[in-house]
Amino acid sequence: MIKMTQRLQTYSKAKAIGIGAPGPLDAKKGIILGPPNLPGWDYVPLKDIMEQRIALPVVVDNDANAAALAEAHFGAGAGYESVFYITVSTGVGGGFVYNKQVIKGANSCAGEIGNMIITNTGPSHPVLNKGSLELLASGTALQRAGKQQLNLQGDAGELFRLAQNGDPTAKDIIEEFINYLAIGIANVIHTVDPDIIVLGGGVMKSKDSFMTELREKVKDCVYPQLRQSVRIEPALLGTKAGIVGAAMLPKQSR
């Protein structure tokens, strides 16, 4: 990260650096606390390390918060007061933006829905809860199920392609994924009641295979009076959302 920043031609003109990093983390101190998908990154003072080497102010926040910020300002959430962004990728993360400001929580853990318990069964993990949303409805979860049940060696996209071609096992895995993700989204809706849920992350490359069913499943899981107002849309900024949001962090932190 340091070498890449120093190689940028515009580095000398920069006034600050924003970093979107996997949570959990301490956004106030810029410390990475032990993300499930970054083994060994325990209590890493990323802000201090970067500031010492780059000699510019550095702001660190959850990568999902950064993406949420970008989508709320420039993407699918633009024009809405409250936007909850969910990334479904290697893991599952979330960020809540209200009135264009990220809601971080007392310990920088607001929106950490990946560790939300969906069921009391499921694989174990050294950091995450058993039966958590991330272990059941992430790209990694799909990849794991594809490998265990179909001996697939590719990513989640391969599983979606098999399901579209009628493979019954692949279809069952995707159906389970949709059910778990729908429960997680319904829990978010009942907790913060956002204007819109925005879905991003690598799994959304296969959105055409599951978005319609996902919307219907979510409606089945919420209060009847909420069903007509459920709004779930794919992210518009794609993989750039986190980068755009990270660039916005220093200004947002003033």
TrEMBL record:
Signal sequence segment? none
Q: Record's Pfam families?
A: ROK (PF00480)
Task: Please give the family membership noted in the entry.
Answer: Belongs to the ROK (NagC/XylR) family.
Record's protein name: ROK family protein
